[in-house]
Design a protein that fits this description.
The chain has 138 residues and is mainly α. The protein has a domain at 94-138. It has helices at residues 11-24, 28-40, 44-87, 93-120, 124-134. This is CopG family transcriptional regulator. Keywords: Coiled coil. Residues 49-76 form a coiled coil.
């Protein structure tokens, strides 16, 4: 048996309840009943804590992946710069204009290759992980 109860809500809360009822295709009574039951439940605090803990765990794993990816990126750039600085000879004054034009051409090619690689979804981190696993790594 259901008992009718009169409850006063602020205008904002009432509008939010109306919107939620439309979005969820549920009656306002169903939503309010579930919310009150959850609020009055003795383990509602534990459920909220568990949900928060799960969310924090997901965020922590995402941050760990980001840290790994940034480390790989930084190391890849550092290795490239080191190799480039080692292999690039000093230029004389006359050669500098030609080298600058060639550098612009190579940079445009680099950007095109980078765009293609990012669009393909095949990323360096995947290759690094596959190669390390193939060599007996982690």
């Amino acid at each position: 048996m259901k008992i009718q109860t009169k409850v006063f809500l602020t205008r904002d809360l009432s509008q939010a309840l109306d919107a939620a009822a439309r979005r969820m295709k549920r009656s306002k009574s169903e939503i309010v009943q579930a919310a009150v039951a959850s609020y009055l439940s003795p383990d509602s605090g534990e459920a909220a804590e568990a949900a928060l803990t799960r969310r924090l765990d997901r965020i922590s794993r995402a941050i760990d992946r980001l840290e790994r990816d940034v480390t790989i990126s930084n190391e890849a750039v550092a290795l490239f710069v080191k190799a480039w600085l080692t292999a690039t000879p000093s230029l004389t004054g006359g050669d500098q204009r030609a080298q600058s034009a060639k550098g612009q051409e190579r940079y445009a090619g680099f950007l095109e290759a980078l765009s293609r690689r990012l669009a393909s979804g095949r990323l360096l981190r995947s290759e690094v992980l596959e190669e390390s696993e193939g060599k007996g790594g982690k």
